[in-house]
């Protein structure tokens, strides 16, 4: 595992600019179903025409150190020329504190070890990771509307677009 870098910026040449971008709101978003569940990401929206997506995905190649048969996550931080992906099945808006930047959000995620995540053997765990980040953002008062937080967390417990209940799968954090 030595040499494994879990964080990837897209494009890599714009890392500094990505981190400097303002965050006007955060959207928790389920994407089209694959493998019996939706893939969830966070979009840090700068405007209706730009955002930064934080996408936690299983590597499928770097073995887990905590979850038997699982794999370590890649965290892909992408600068986008739109607010959310066209394959979004829903969106849960989280209003943010004024003056927030992508770098502040990402800095807290790394300070709390949220970039060191593992998926289970089935490659499932993005909903758990997304829930954990929403909880952290609320705890840090980066997002402050409790009803928006509750709605997003309730949305994560459903399969979209049909909205059938789906228990939360567990991932794990490593040191």
Write up what this structure looks like.
- It comes from Penicillium hordei.
- Residues 35-174 form the DUF7770 domain.
- This is DUF7770 domain-containing protein.
- The chain has 175 residues and is of the alpha+beta class.
- Helices cover 23% and strands 35% of the residues.
- The protein has helices at 15-20, 102-111, 126-139, 146-156, and strands at 7-10, 25-34, 37-47, 50-63, 71-80, 92-95, 117-119, 158-159, 164-165, 172-173.
- The strands form two sheets. Strands 1, 2, 3, 4, 5, 6, 7 and 10 form an eight-stranded mixed beta sheet that branches. Strands 8-9 form a two-stranded antiparallel ribbon.
- A hairpin with a 4-residue loop joins strand 8 and strand 9.
- Helix 3 (126-139) packs antiparallel against helix 4.
- The mean pLDDT is 96.
Low-confidence stretches: none
Give the helix/strand class: alpha+beta
Share of helical residues = 10-25%
How many strands, which pairing sense, and closed or not: the largest β-sheet?
8 strands, mixed
Shape category? globular
Order of helices and strands: EHEEEEEHEHHEEE
């Amino acid at each position: 595992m030595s040499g494994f870098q879990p964080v990837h910026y897209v494009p890599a040449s714009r890392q500094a600019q990505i981190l400097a971008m303002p965050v006007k709101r955060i959207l928790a978003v389920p994407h089209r179903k694959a493998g019996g569940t939706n893939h969830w990401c966070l979009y840090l929206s700068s405007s209706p025409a730009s955002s930064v997506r934080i996408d936690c995905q299983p590597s499928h190649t770097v073995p887990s150190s905590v979850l038997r048969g699982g794999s370590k996550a890649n965290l892909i931080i992408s600068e986008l020329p739109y607010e959310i992906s066209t394959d979004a099945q829903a969106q849960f808006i989280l209003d943010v504190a004024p003056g927030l930047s992508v770098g502040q959000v990402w800095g807290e995620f790394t300070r709390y070890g949220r970039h060191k995540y593992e998926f289970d053997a089935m490659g499932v765990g993005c909903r758990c990771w997304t829930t954990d980040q929403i909880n952290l953002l609320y705890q840090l008062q980066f997002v402050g509307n409790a009803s928006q937080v509750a709605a997003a967390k309730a949305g994560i417990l459903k399969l979209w677009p049909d909205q059938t209940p789906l228990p939360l799968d567990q991932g794990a954090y490593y040191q």
